[in-house]
Amino acid sequence: MSDPLGDDALVEAAERWWSTDIIDIHPGYIGVRGFPIEQLIGRLSFPQMIWLMLRGEVPTAEQGALLEAALVASVDHGPQAPSISISRMSVTCGLPLNGAMASAINVLDDVHGGAGQQCMELYAEIDQALVKAGYGEGATLDHDQTVRLATEVWAGWKERGIRYAPGFGHRFHPLDPRAPRLLGLVDDQAAAGAVSGRFAAIGRAVEDSISAGRSRRVPMNIDGATAVIYSELGFEPALGRGIFILSRSVGILAHAWEQTQQGGRIKGPMPPQIPYNYTGIKHRDLEPNA
Question: Which 3 state secondary structure label does DSSP give 80?
């Protein structure tokens, strides 16, 4: 067994245990990515601060505006969204706001809340196929070729058992009203040279590909549109989900607070007057000698 560390070595080992490039704190000083916090307060928007924390640099005004648009678009989708309904039910069970928010956020996983990240992964795979086909960064994409490659990539996803293209179609909206607006903002920034527009083209190619041969188009939804924005801005897919959770947390908080003001006690997903559907064995009696 090695000799125990001396006091100085022990302190040094403790300091090395956690390391971070994000924040530097000393008595009277707080530095975020090297910037004194007092220089950031009042000058950076919250979306720009998110960017700085995640990426290490201050975004341009155009980048911050696109990130903000995606965050605004995803804040809420009503009590029928499981995460929102969970936040409301939680407070009727006595949880404080932080408990209600934690309960709701915990369900934002692959099925509910994961489509944006999955769509970014789909876009990234198509992007790599385009690079291999000779359409590298900065190249003008041929739409037909992009559709063809999107079709090939999506076929590979379907072979892995994935039935629905993440980021496309919607169980409630025939056309998600958020998606065209977000894509329009990307188009504007692409025309101004703030982003490439490459992933907007890829997203549209996916829509054309999965809609081919159908009587109705399968339009891009909010997850597909925000996946375009986060991909255009250079975020990794896993961060796409994390940023979505930051956005949806606003709706979760608002609904939990509203339910707190409305009151109610132990509210389930449906009023007690509406029965659930029992599909088990009908009434039977236990034999006396059982």
Answer: coil
